[in-house]
Design a protein that fits this description.
The complex is a heterodimer of chains A (660) and B (523). Chain A is mainly alpha-helical and 660 residues long. Helices cover 75% and strands 3% of the residues of chain A. Chain A has helices at residues 3-23, 29-56, 84-107, 114-133, 137-155, 162-193, 198-204, 210-227, 236-239, 245-254, 259-266, 268-273, 275-296, 302-322, 326-353, 371-385, 391-405, 409-434, 442-445, 453-468, 480-489, 501-528, 531-539, 541-548, 553-620, 622-626, 631-655, and strands at 61-71, 74-82. Chain A has a two-stranded antiparallel sheet with strand order 1-2. In chain A, a hairpin with a 2-residue loop joins strand 1 and strand 2. Chain A starts with a helix and ends in a 5-residue tail after the last helix. Chain B has 523 residues and is mainly alpha-helical. In chain B, helix 12 (261-273) packs parallel to helix 23 and helix 19 (379-392) packs antiparallel against helix 21. Helices cover 74% and strands 3% of the residues of chain B. The chains are: A mainly alpha (660), B mainly alpha (523). At the A-B interface, strand 1, helix 5, helix 6, helix 25 and helix 27 of A face helix 5, helix 6, helix 7, helix 14 and helix 16 of B.
């Protein structure tokens, strides 16, 4: 594995960005699509080679491209780091990214701005790759804000829609709040370590006091919360569904939103030292997993259900980090990337075949009409619900087992309830979309069609991965995956626990029963007794409305942050116009009085000189004079000569001698 | 800082007087087209010279380079003394760069009185160059004041607002008010020199060698501060800025927002000459307070501005708050970041003013409520607008990030509270820019938007592309720029750390060493 190969991974998509961005208007959109997909494919091939290299030699290696920012005691390289964690992320980002790019060619076919779409997507790949490959906090930060920018651009892809434009701004701003926290963490790190390189920082981490490490990790956590849509900064993600569906799959499910999890695992050496931060991570994760799942129960937009499901699943990953189960967090990140990308893309195929309809109340009975889409969607549902032996079961079970075995019973309870709800809302979604009577608009119904192969092929591959992906981590705790990540994801200072196979088996049985329970309830409510859901929503109308409106969190934020800010801006503007200016003029006023004397002198003494100047001017510059409205000339002369006099005056005053 | 290097020919004098001579030559011409072409030609020639200067500049050095000195008023120790070092050299390049862009912009945008307009711009360039290359306090002051003359005409004669005459006068009077204090400060410095050596001097390098008593330093600091604060402008001395920038022509707004004269003065004169006052706890706390206030104040007001030009004014005030914060962090990263950020703002804030001009030329206003959906009509304009806007709000990979990051890092090192408060400005910046962008560029096409809108013209595209090149160059590979400034920044930091007394001793020893060891140096 040569350095060049490592550098090429992000460079291929970058070349595509430049070529399509600068020259894209010169050739057909088809070619732009091919360039975009091809670049990600090449990047994927490089990533595979890099991955194989790590497989044979897992010691971390740094590739320094050049010195980026330096001066004084600061020296930041534009450098990349390759270790098992990066290798796993590389495979997910380029692999799933490649499939989604292929799918997008079909999905976005014929859209205005097809080339623009792929420029943004490729730019996203570059940023995301820098994020996971950086060898220091600052390169990570380029990627970190870069993916935020691409997310902004892609959410606002249909920019003439007001809701899309608003969602884009919201996503960027909320992410920026997290980014600000992350920046503070970087400053803390630099002040304490005088370097930003991961390896050096982690090596010296144990020299710090617990308070400092806690401060650093809490700031990092703010960043992670913003990017990974955790409480209290999750509100941007559901709105982000305004973007085209492949974007939701790539950015808002499989890759970008997992950046927070990646970052926590990457810096786990610091988190391990700060129990307070660890507890916070776990609690935020557990609460988010539960809260988002409850909102997902009642949403009617197919993409929004999946969005809340993503928030909830990210909560599981945070929960795993909070209990020190880093490899389980990354394991779930990987399987989630498979099945959530699958779910989003097949939801996209549904939307595609229904000519843009996203409301599940206007779907139903689609299983026969679009069988391939139906099958892969069902596989995705089974995987996320935790039905063995599909991928989601193994990774979620591992997280829950860790929570239980580390005696975090409350978190375990959160996770268990969340798992039940997940299973319920996903099967609800499946039943409402694919079973029962068709509620599709008759005009649309005639045109329902299966998606083209360029879309279904990636779906099948993702479905295969969702079925088999979980076996990477089997048997639990001792699978290949855990072994591969051992060097980078083993918590510091935690004694490995010995547990009997019996306990593990028991926990598995519980997990399976929970998943089946959720499925059963959904089956009963939406397949056997379809009126029941409606009755319930009427009987508990108050609670239903609160959940349907997402607990009014958006409204709350508006009332306590957005509106006061605007009001303050308006009031300050008024003060700025009316009061500060007057204050400054007050200072000037004192000078005015003393200046009055000077002005008198100027008027009477200098006028002689001015007249001479004016005459010279008159002779020399008729055209210049035309535009002058009389006084201008004099003003200029007064300024210049007045200054000269002032200077002279001061000299006489201070030195007692005269210049003239 | 005391070491001086000469150059084969007086390149700084040529840089300084070329635009003025060009302006005088334009005076004799009549053909409007020829005038435009020659004005642009002169500006490009000047830029070429500036680039040559940058290429020949020795990086990582604190020496005063390309030095020239002629007697002017020897009895008072006033001389025509020009030189650049790492603090000032980039400003020379920036000013020349911006002038070329202004000429390009004005090609179509300015229709009336094109001859005096071009002359004013060129004269303005000379005065600005003068400010950056003078290291004699009086020479500096003369250019500092002379700059007001072309600026006054620019705002008054080519302004676009209703109250342009008021704005022009206000700008001149406010700046004059500040500079009176500054001149007294300079005079006191010279007097102090007289007390020690029995001769007068206004030469920066000479003054550096005579320490000023600490109690006098504080007084002189505040006197000079007033001059710099009004010009910069530092909050709360900024109230002339909205008038001047909104009423004045775009060309003038670009200069006033893009060329950071006031904050340059701190780095050039205040810190080296008055290190004890600059590091005095009360002084630092006060100025840092003003910087923080400017960041939050400017940003929050900017959010609520419906007019893009006014929004830019307050964003500019907020950005200047960052610069002040970095300067008075008084550590390497802070100074380096502030210096770089002053240059950056010449590409980002000034760039956004160009875009305000592009919009103004097409729509006749920059009010958000009359825009909407412009991205659909002018995709190229919208794209460049977004790139420059992103640089302005400090997106990593652009120049704005490098500056802002270093400033914040410096401020954080001075005290973590500074860093925490200032970082809020980063969030607000995203809000004010993106909210405006969303309402103006995105959404359905507004009712009051004209049916036919031209996308960027070729000349406008040249402006946009050259700005973007600089934005990404500094953002991704800032190494050449950092190397140019690092030596001088280190020298200022050393002086601040050691104080003037120790510095004077040390500098003298170093200088005498340098002189005796230099082949051909005077013995």
């Amino acid at each position: 594995m040569s350095d060049l190969l490592v550098i090429l991974v992000p460079v291929f998509p970058l070349i595509a960005v430049l070529v399509n961005g600068l020259l894209g208007h010169r050739y057909a959109a088809d070619l732009a699509g091919r360039i975009a997909v091809g670049s990600v494919g090449l990047s994927f091939l490089c990533a595979i080679t890099v991955f194989l290299g790590v497989l044979s030699d897992p010691t971390p290696r740094e590739v320094i491209a050049y010195s980026w920012i330096f001066g004084g005691d600061l020296h930041v390289n534009f450098g990349l780091l390759i270790d098992p964690l990066t290798a796993v992320m590389l495979m997910v980002v380029t692999g799933v990214g490649f499939l989604i790019h292929v799918y997008s060619v079909g999905y976005m076919h014929g859209e205005d701005g097809f080339t623009r779409f792929f420029v943004y997507m490729n730019l996203f790949m570059v940023s995301m790759l820098l994020l996971v490959m950086g060898n220091n906090f600052l390169v990570l930060f380029i990627g970190w804000e870069g993916v935020g920018l691409c997310s902004y651009l892609l959410i606002g892809y249909y920019f003439n829609k007001v809701s899309a434009a608003k969602a884009a701004t919201k996503a960027f701003v909320v992410n920026r709040i997290g980014d600000a926290g992350f920046l503070l963490a970087i400053f803390f790190v630099f002040v304490n370590f005088k370097t930003l390189d991961y390896l050096k920082v982690f090596e010296r981490a144990n020299q710090l006091s617990i308070e400092t490490v806690t401060a650093i990790t809490l700031c990092l956590l703010v960043g992670a919360i913003g990017k990974s849509a955790q409480i209290p900064l999750y509100t941007w993600l559901p709105d982000a569904m305004e973007g085209p569906t492949p974007v939701s799959a790539l950015i808002h499910a499989a890759t970008m939103v997992t950046a927070g999890v990646y970052m926590v695992v990457r810096t786990h050496v610091l988190f391990d030292m700060a129990p307070v931060s660890m507890a916070t991570v776990g609690i935020i994760g557990g609460l988010t997993a539960l809260l988002a799942a409850t909102i997902g129960l009642v949403q009617n937009d197919i993409k929004r259900v999946l969005a809340y499901s993503t928030v909830s699943q990210l909560g599981y990953m945070f929960l795993a980090c909070g209990v020190g189960a880093y490899s389980a967090a990354i394991f779930h990140l990987v399987t989630h990337a498979f099945f959530k990308a699958l779910l989003f893309l097949s939801a996209g195929a549904v939307i595609h075949s229904l000519e843009g309809e996203q409301d599940i109340r206007k779907m139903g009975g689609l299983s026969k009409k679009i069988p391939i889409t139906y099958t892969v969607f069902l596989i995705g549902t089974l995987a996320i619900a935790g039905i063995p032996p599909l991928a989601g079961f193994w990774s979620k079970d591992e997280i829950m087992a860790h929570a239980f075995l580390q005696h975090h019973y409350v978190l375990y309870l959160f996770a268990a309830i969340g798992a039940f709800l997940t299973s319920f809302y996903m099967f609800r979604l499946t039943y409402l979309t694919f079973y029962g009577q068709s509620r599709v608009d008759p005009k649309v119904e005639r045109h329902i069609h299966e998606s083209p192969q360029v879309m279904t092929r990636p779906l099948m591959i993702l479905a295969g991965l969702s079925v088999l992906g979980g076996f990477l981590g089997v048997p639990p705790e001792h699978g290949w995956f855990q072994g591969f990540l051992e060097s980078v994801a083993t918590p510091v200072g935690v004694v490995p626990h010995d547990v009997s196979m019996g306990t593990l088996f028991g926990l598995m049985v519980v997990a399976i029963s929970i998943a089946l329970g959720g499925w059963g309830l959904a089956h009963y409510m939406y397949a056997i007794n379809p009126t029941m859901a409606e009755n319930w929503s009427k009987r508990y109308a108050g609670a239903y409305r609160i959940i349907l409106n997402k607990y009014y969190v958006d409204e709350l934020y508006d009332a306590i942050f957005v509106e006061p800010c605007k009001r303050l801006g308006r009031i300050w503007d008024w003060i700025d116009r009316h009061m500060i200016d007057r204050f400054i003029r007050g200072i000037g006023h004192g000078t005015d009085i003393s200046a009055a004397g000077v002005t008198w002198a100027e008027k009477h003494v200098i006028y002689g000189g001015l007249n001479v100047m004016g005459y010279a001017n008159h002779l020399a510059a008729r055209s210049w004079r035309k535009l002058q409205t009389g006084a201008v000339n004099h003003y200029a002369a007064v300024i210049v000569i007045g200054l000269f006099l002032l200077t002279h005056f001061l000299f006489v005053w201070f030195t007692g001698t005269s210049l003239l | 800082m005391l070491e001086e290097l000469q150059f084969g020919f007086p390149i700084l004098s040529i840089l300084l007087w070329l635009p003025l001579l060009g302006a005088l030559w334009l005076w004799t011409q009549r053909d409007a087209d020829l005038i435009k072409k020659s004005a642009l030609g002169i500006a490009i020639l000047e830029l070429g010279l500036a680039v040559f200067l940058l290429l020949r500049f020795i990086p990582e050095s604190a020496a005063m380079q390309f030095s020239e000195q002629l007697n002017w008023m020897p009895a008072l120790g006033i001389s025509y003394h020009l030189a650049v070092d790492g603090i000032s050299v980039l400003f020379v390049g920036l000013s020349a760069f911006i002038t070329v862009l202004i000429m390009l912009y004005s090609w179509d945008a300015v229709q009336e009185n094109i001859k005096p307009y071009c002359m004013s711009i060129l004269v303005l360039e000379t005065t600005i160059m003068g400010i950056f290359v003078s290291i004699d306090l009086i020479l500096f002051f003369v250019f500092w004041e002379l700059m007001l003359v072309p600026s006054y005409f620019m705002i008054k004669l080519w302004g676009v607002g209703e109250e342009k005459e008021y704005a022009a006068l206000k700008y001149v009077l406010y700046t004059l008010l500040g500079s009176v204090f500054m001149l007294v400060g300079f005079a006191l410095l010279s007097l102090n020199y007289y007390e020690v050596t029995n001769t007068y001097s206004f030469d920066f390098l000479a003054l550096l060698q005579v320490p000023v008593p600490v109690e006098d330093q504080i007084l002189i600091f505040w006197l000079i501060f007033m001059g710099l604060a009004f010009k910069a402008p530092v909050f709360p001395f900024h109230t002339w800025l909205p008038d001047a920038l909104v009423q004045g022509p775009i060309g003038m707004s670009v200069v006033l927002a893009g060329v950071k004269l006031g904050t340059y003065g701190f780095l050039r004169f205040t810190f080296p000459l008055l290190p004890e006052a600059s590091t005095h706890a009360t002084v630092v706390a006060t100025v840092m307070g003003l910087g923080l206030a400017a960041i939050v104040w400017g940003a929050l007001i900017a959010i609520m501005q419906p007019d893009f030009r006014r929004l830019l004014v307050f964003s500019s005030i907020s950005h200047l708050g960052f610069v002040v914060l970095g300067l008075f962090a008084l550590n390497f990263q802070g100074l380096q970041g502030s210096l770089l950020q002053m240059i950056n703002l010449g590409f980002t804030t000034a760039g956004l003013f160009f875009f305000a001009g592009f919009l103004y030329d097409r729509l006749g206003h920059t009010l958000v409520e009359n825009c909407g959906g412009l991205a659909a009509k002018m995709p190229v304009l919208a794209t460049f607008f977004l790139i420059i806007g992103m640089a302005s709000i400090g997106l990593p990979g652009t120049n704005g990030f490098i500056g802002e990051f270093l400033i914040l890092l410096g401020a954080f090192q001075a005290h973590w509270v500074y860093g925490v408060v200032a970082v809020s400005g980063v969030i607000f910046a995203a809000i004010y820019f993106l909210w405006y962008y969303e309402r103006a560029m995105f959404g359905p096409i507004g009712e009051k938007v004209p049916q036919v809108l031209k996308d960027l013209t070729q000349r406008e595209s040249i402006i946009a592309v050259s700005l973007c090149v600089m934005i990404f160059w500094i953002g991704l590979y800032p190494s050449p720029f950092l190397r140019m400034v690092n030596g001088s920044v280190q020298a200022v930091v050393d002086r601040l750390d050691r104080g003037s007394l120790v510095s004077v001793e040390r500098d003298r020893t170093l200088l005498s060493h340098a002189l005796t060891h230099e082949p051909g140096g005077k013995d």
